[in-house]
Amino acid sequence: MILPVLKLGTLALKTFSKPIANGLKKDAGLNPKFRQLIINIAQANHRFTTTIQRRIYGRATDVAIRPLNEEKAVQTAADLLGELFLFSVAGTAIIFEVQRSSRSEARKEALHRQELQAMKQQDEDLAREVGFLQHKIAELEHLAKGRGLGGLLNLRLGHGTEDGQAKPA
Known about the structure:
One of its GO terms (biological process) is regulation of lipid metabolic process. By secondary structure, the protein is mostly helical.
């Protein structure tokens, strides 16, 4: 019952985080200091990706890379910020799910260990009882040998007396 509700809650969290990410993308360029920060991040990202692409395609990497214009940099950084937010929400949900699953597995393992311990204890108790019964059988066989075959029959039927004679009816 709780697992489907938890999964539905995780899906709802991911769904609600998309408009938040879009709001972050829209408001990213309004604050001047934050705007300059994300422009710097976007330019660094542009230089990095361009260098990687040039290396992959075997082109020269020592040439100057033209910076993005300001609006393109803001848009790129805002997209990156939105994607980073969505990724962090999804990552957090995955971590939460893994932890929940591991706790569930730990509980199952502990329950299995308890059941195994109870079975071992029951096995030991039964082994002691079998040993006790074997000892009683050995005692009875010893007493029956002393009384002969008739004593054994009387002893098994429960009609014998202390001296080995049959009780009168």
